[in-house]
Design goal:
homodimer, 341 residues, alpha/beta, 8-stranded mixed sheet, 8 strands, 12% strand, globular
């Protein structure tokens, strides 16, 4: 893998996959191929030179090709970026496996856990594409703002430092600052849990609990995320960084966060199925909530916020009751809730 | 000091002082005296049973008395709450010293450092009122929402645990959850620095840098706050709690944060003096910025965000240049910026 030139495949033509593909193609010497599952979607993007469905008003560079042929997309690619929802990652990687070079680096963008197995995305990558280095690109990154050239910072995590440094070079542009990290599992837990916290923050805002309550919820939420992350082997400082704190703050306070918006609408009395049916964007927190609760049980960690969110998305509790329960927690010494790792 | 009954004096009839006085007076058996510096302001509040200037639309309980006589206010009070801007704390405590019981507990609400001496507020309290236990009440607490009965959480920090527990009882109500902490200096540094970070966040928002940039700024800002706080003797976990993360998130993301609003207006081209003259509220970050930079120099800590803010409030740099400099910082390994303590 070299930082300049070389082919990169991006699997998944949603908002973030398209943005990252367009970002990489800002280097005019680089060949970038964006794979869309649907042939008609691939054709539409290719002809319009714009992904009108997921990233409107963003012209795509000419060195960005679009295809529905996954074998062709990954053939010869030194880096394969996975940008589909967490629940589809295994299936897409299986489709890509035969054509993916044994030396290719896999970079996951999905923020969530595999339903049922509770695998992190890197575990899925390692099972389906054994032997390839696996990395995670994460952080507080709303796609449309990055596509529009606004400044942002992100983390690329990989256990192999030379690979992390190459990927840092690959993804860095003047408006997109990339920091390295070796804590893959920590970054993955952060990315999975923060969407659940965003649902909770949206619910609190939908119930007009106020900015103070939301700030307290973010604080307790990051402590909860950190407890689980440390128990699963992550570093405490990862959760204080862009992948943890940064993404939690963004997802819980931006009105353009998908998960926040779903929580907000649930709190206003809409039914989950109707909320989800009204958008073609995926709110990963809905699927992640039960996975986080199951992981917390496996690791013996207390996750009261995620438990309330899981009860709401399962239809077992009203959002108002969940928020009330969270805001009435026992008081005590502040340190009691923090991870020690 | 007993949790029920007993007289409490609140010195300072601004928005937060009035809110805390009204909160304490929710216990109908408690005698609460609110001191206003200006006799006409005290009379106006007392006659209207409302602080129209700083906390409009909030009727005050009948067991809350208002006076401009500071000696009468503190006489016989078991708890003296200090709720004036940081720069006035010493002067007000000197006025209160003769009448304050030698056994009274001093609870500081001011978030900032003494200009010139760089003393924390607890250091000022200990100098002027030696021998009394000193505590800090802090956290993500916008006054109007608490006055309106919306839920919030806060921290009461005191080195003497029995005092902290008594104060926890005193300040706790069903909608206001109080956690204890023994890290007074950590809470004070957090309260002082967060206002400077809020100015930076307001500037970034005023320049329309976007939600991603603001989330990154909050992340780097909390790391900066934590570095200084740890160097000054605070605990790292304090900065992950309500006094640190919680208050930083609130101040940097709420459009009703005073310091955020000042930063926002500076970024839109207004002159600092005009911004400050247009409001009777104090934005503590303006005074804290040079103090934080001086403390950072004393403790050998790097505080790039606070340095940029200090340059802007001193008129040495345009907000746009400051924000641009912050968003173009060197990339590296994420852990490099985090405190080790």
């Amino acid at each position: 893998v070299g930082p300049d030139g070389g082919k990169v495949a991006v699997l998944g033509a949603g908002s973030w996959g398209t943005t990252v593909a367009a970002l990489l193609a800002l280097d005019a010497h680089r060949e970038v191929v964006l794979w869309a599952r649907s042939p008609s979607h691939a054709t539409a993007i290719s002809e319009a030179r714009c992904n009108d469905r997921y990233l409107p008003n963003t012209p795509l560079p000419h060195n960005l090709a679009v295809t529905a042929d996954i074998g062709g997309a990954v053939a010869g690619a030194g880096v394969v970026v996975v940008a589909v929802p967490a629940r589809w990652v295994r299936e897409v990687l299986v489709l890509a496996a035969r054509g993916t070079a044994p030396t290719a680096v896999i970079v996951n963008l999905a923020k969530g856990f595999e339903p049922g197995t509770l695998c992190t995305m890197s575990e899925v990558c390692e099972e389906v594409l054994p032997g390839r280095p696996v990395a995670v690109l994460t952080g507080p990154n709303l796609a449309p703002d990055i596509a529009a050239g606004l400044p942002a910072a992100a983390v690329v995590a990989c256990r192999e430092e030379p690979v992390a440094l190459v990927l840092q070079q690959l993804f860095s542009f003047s408006h997109f600052r990339v920091y390295t990290n070796d804590d893959v599992v920590g970054c993955e837990v952060a990315g999975g849990v923060k969407n659940v916290l965003a649902l909770a923050a949206g619910m609190a805002d939908g119930l007009e609990a106020g900015d103070n309550a939301r700030a307290a919820l973010v604080t307790r939420g990051l402590a909860e995320l950190s407890r689980l992350g440390v128990a699963m082997g992550g570093h405490a400082w990862t959760f204080a960084g862009l992948a943890g704190l940064g993404d939690v703050v963004l997802s819980c306070t931006s009105r353009r966060s998908r998960n926040w918006a779903v929580g907000f609408r649930l709190a206003q009395g809409e039914v989950l199925a109707a909320v989800l049916a009204s958008t073609h964007q995926v709110a990963e927190g809905v699927g992640s909530a039960p996975s986080v609760v199951a992981l917390a049980a496996r690791y013996g960690v207390v996750t009261p916020i995620c438990e309330q969110v899981a009860a709401v998305v399962a239809g077992r509790r009203a959002a108002a009751d969940a928020v009330a329960a969270l805001l009435e927690r026992e008081r005590g010494h502040e340190r009691a809730g923090l991870p020690t790792g």
